[in-house]
Amino acid sequence: MSHDRGCAQCGADTMSDKRECYNRIGEGCAKASVFRHAVVTNTPRAGETAEQTAARTAPRASRRTRLIEADSATRKTYPMCTGLLDYFPDALAEVAKVSFLGNAKHNPGEPMHHARGKSMDHPDCIARHLVERGGFDVVLIDGVEHKIRHSGSLAWRALALLQEEIEREQGLPLPRAARPAVPA
Fold first, then answer.
1. Quick one: which of 90, 100, 101 has its CA closest to 138?
2. Residue range 79-100, pLDDT digits in tens
3. What are phi and psi of 172, to 5 degrees?
4. How far apart are CA 118 and CA 120, in angstroms?
5. What is the pLDDT of residues 116-172, one digit of tens each?
6. Three-state SS for 136?
7. Strands 178-179 and 114-115: what pairing?
8. Do 31 and 11 form a contact (C-beta atoms < 8 A)?
9. What is the per-residue DSSP string for 63-121?
């Protein structure tokens, strides 16, 4: 597969084969991760004007919208279902429960979303939930008591911390269910 222009992220200019970009990643391209970069071509898409093509193909720091945005072969290397969901179905269901009850507590009446900025002390909360692992928090929502595992809250906080680290490092946008912090 040949491209009119190189990799949008590492600037590889000889893209006669996709492996070139993979090789640059293996050599430690400063802007790379283990995932394939987006490759931009100057070939117009159907119905696209020359100005739209130029805007779409203009160099940018990162064209990636998620960390695992890649071709099929690369995505299959890191299988999210068989390598995560199938390993930890009950633990992930518990983390989803933490998300649901946390949203009901902190964003009553609103669709589920991670309200960034409402509680940003993830490392301290992780430590507290680790100390209290094996136990439960009791949360009162609409007059009903709900038990939430400390280990589930710890996992939720660890995922939030990791997500925010990756977003900062890779320059990624907020995920679709996250809302930016509202200035006080």
1. 101
2. 899 999 999 999 999 999 999 9
3. -85, 150
4. 7
5. 988 899 999 999 999 999 999 999 999 999 999 999 999 999 999 999 999 999 889
6. strand
7. parallel
8. no
9. --SSTT---HHHHHHS-TIIIIITT-HHHHHHHHHHHHHHHHHHSTTSPS-EETTS---
